[in-house]
Amino acid sequence: MDLLLNLIASGLVIGSIYGLIAVSFAIIFKTTGVLNFAQGEVMMLVAYLSWSLGNALPLPFPILILASIIVAAIVGVLTERLVIRPMIGQPIFTIVMVTIGLAATLRSGIHMIWGVDAESFESSISGGLIEIGPVVLYSEQLAAIILFFTVSATVYLFFRFTRVGVAMRATAMDETSALLMGVDVRRVSALAWAISAIISGLAGITFSIMFSRAPDIWFQGLRSFPATILGGLDSPIGSGFGGLIIGVIGELSEGYIGHGLKEISGFIVIIVVLMIKPYGLFGEKELERV
Amino acid sequence: MRTGHYIETYSTHVKLSDSRTVWHWIGILLLILVTFPILASNYFLALAITVFIAAIGAIGLNLLTGVTGLISLGQAGFLAAGCYTTGLLITDYSWPPELALLASGVMAALLSLVVGIPSLRLKGLYLAITTMAFSFIITHFLLYAEDITHGPYGVRIENLDFLGLDLSSPAQLYYLALAITVLTAVAALNILRSRVGRAFTAIRDHDIAARMMGISLTRYKLIAFVVSSFIVGIAGGLMAFQFQFINVDLFNLLLSVEALAMIIVGGLGSVPGAILGAIFIVLLPEATREVIDLLPSGITDLLSTYIYELRGLLTGLAIIIMLRLKPHGLIGLWQDVKRYWTHWPLSV
User: Fold this and answer.
1) Would you state the pLDDT for residue B253?
2) Where are the transmembrane segments (chain A) (predicted)?
3) Minimal Cα distance from B260: which residue of A?
4) For A266, which of A47, A226, B112, B256 could close a Cys bridge (C-beta 3.0–4.6 Å)?
């Protein structure tokens, strides 16, 4: 029983990271229809920049996080402006290919600048042990879960109640009508990229604090695809909870079956899910049958 | 001045090429390729073999992604399946290499049905993710099913004798790879000018309209998967012949991305485009290395430490720049140049 609870707890921890990245996938997909294959690399870039910032200046942790959020927003807007904006009007296929190219470019660029050695990411929130009944968590692991729920709630409230959030949903629904109603569609697109860079950047920083600032953290981006597929590509909150489910499934299958299933259980799950429910648990069903 | 090129009968329309000049140039090219091993060093032969294998794989992927419009990020998975099938059948089951190579194509084609059938309900992005998931599952299986695949130890293949060719000699392997590349290119061109090929294009351009025209989407999408994976599997089998020691690490995500880069840079949906793209992407890191050697030694040392990263960087940049500036790829560029010359001085 203790084993089960501990597995579920560590599943929720890693699932929170998947969930955060999946939310960022879904925000870009919902507003622009583009699936950003470079999300893992954007997350990595923000984590690396934040690590360098933390090493260069003796900032207190909250200030470092604030600075990282600003850096992430700049990264997001720049990506959109330099790489995605010039491709507007091209087929989605082409834009998605561009993000695949961007992923390869960013990943290799980061490796060339920072090298391929892992470094530890020191922070004031790490190190404590927290016992909740039979479950033992590190404080940074608990922070990951808290971050996930905070971000999910913020994203939900943002899309539901703020003017900008409503404008973004309108753009997602029908770009032309939104434009006619006075929504600045281009700014909405830049905003979506900035928000998702912030969310995945925070996920990257948390991940680096939990493990290390390592050259392979981009792979978490690909690992999060199952989460966003499970939850529905166009549903940010659904994607987030998809992440928790995939995380728990991964830990349980590793704990009870083994054979490195943690790595691929998510991928097996999505192949099954796509066979049964192609638009995910919470995604909108497109009324097109071919 | 030429005013235009008129095609008057249907049979001329579906011909591979109705231009005598094109056939002459192809003959000259083949002659050069056949005499190449006599003059070239082993380094250039190895490079040429890599180009051939990449070209076969790119032609296969192009049938699926470029012609039928089904994005696949699972190229590495099918290559791995083909490569391991050949390697294991020869090493552990003492199959003759000829049959083992054929089996690698069949194995990849059968596996493609496993992804193909569920993906009939999916389009675009979902398909890209399914195929990527599939390739991770394949490499995972290869790594963990140690009893069948030797797991992390890899497979060593020895004493390759293929229809009387000794494949441990680069020149003989070169001829085998050349022959299979030519066969694949001819086969792909013939598929494209038949009913099947036109059905593929119709599905890419508008699947609903294609269905209205009486094209069975289930059938033709599956055909696209099977044919494409068969070709990719054969390319994988040739990789086993080339490396003679195979290991899961060869088949990472960068390989799938490079495969996509080949068909994008070359020109989506075109067989010569896929070959040009394969040449470009394979030679790009080599050419860069040559350029780097010319730079001051400090920079050379720095960059040669990161040669693998540089390869990824250049592949990524090639994809972005090509899609941004020349969406029709190198083959489109060539056609533009040709049009410019034939219409000169009235060209725009």
Assistant:
1) 84
2) 6-27, 59-79, 91-114, 142-159, 190-209, 229-252, 264-282
3) A97
4) A226
Q: Which residue has the higher pLDDT, A286 or A216?
A: A216
Per-residue pLDDT of B287-308, as tens digits, reads: 888 887 787 777 777 777 777 7
B324 touches chain A (CB under 8 A): yes
Are the Cβ atoms of A112 and B306 closer than 8 angstroms? yes
B154 dihedral zone (left: phi>0; alpha: psi -120 to 50; beta): left
Count Cβ neighbours within 10 Å for each residue of B272-302 and write b for 16 or more, e otherwise. ebbbbbbbbbbebbeebeeebeeeeeeeeee
What pLDDT, in 10s, does the model give residues A70-101? 999 999 999 999 998 888 778 777 888 899 89
Is residue B267 over pLDDT 60?
Answer: yes
Can you say how many angstroms the Cα of residue B239 is from the centroid of all Cα atoms in its chain? 12
**Amino acid, res. B9:** T
From B300's Cα to the closest Cα of chain A, the distance in A is 14
Mean pLDDT computed over B323-348: 85
DSSP A59-86: --HHHHHHHHHHHHHHHHHHHIIIIIGG
The residue with tokens 């997909």 is A29
Structure tokens given for B45: 């032969």
What is the residue-wise DSSP string for B68-104?
S------HHHHHHHHHHHHHHHHHHH---HHHHHHHH
Confidence check: pLDDT of A288 > 80 = no
Identify the closest residue of chain A to B216 by CA–CA distance: A290
Please name the residue ranges forming H helices in B158-216: 170-192, 195-205, 207-212
DSSP string computed for A126-174? -S-EEEETTEEEEHHHHHHHHHHHHHHHHHHHHHHHSHHHHHHHHHHH-
Query: Considering the entire predicted model, what is its pTM?
Result: 0.88
CA distance A83 to chain B (A): 8
Query: Rounded mean pLDDT of chain B?
Result: 88
Q: pLDDT tens digits, residue range A236-272?
A: 888 999 999 999 999 999 888 877 788 888 888 888 8
Identify all chain A residues contacting B133, using CB atoms and an 8 Å cutoff.
225-226, 264, 267-268, 270-271
ipTM of the complex: 0.83
- Decide if B70 touches A, using CB distance below 8 A: no
Contact A148, A224 (CB under 8 A): no
Angle at the Cα of B222 from the Cα atoms of B219 and B225, rounded to 5 degrees: 150
Q: How far apart are CA B38 and CA B53, in angstroms?
A: 20
Cβ distance A274 to B121 less than 8 Å, yes or no, reads yes
Q: From the CA of A19, how many Å to the nearest CA of chain B? A: 17
Distance CA A143, CA B197 (A): 55
Residues from chain B that touch A97, judged by Cβ atoms under 8 A, are 260, 264, 319, 323
Q: How many CB atoms lie within 10 A of CB A120?
A: 13
Q: Determine the Cα–Cα distance for residues B121 and A289; give it in Å rounded to an integer.
A: 9
pLDDT on residue B124: 67
Per-residue confidence (pLDDT) for residue B1, from 0 to 100: 54
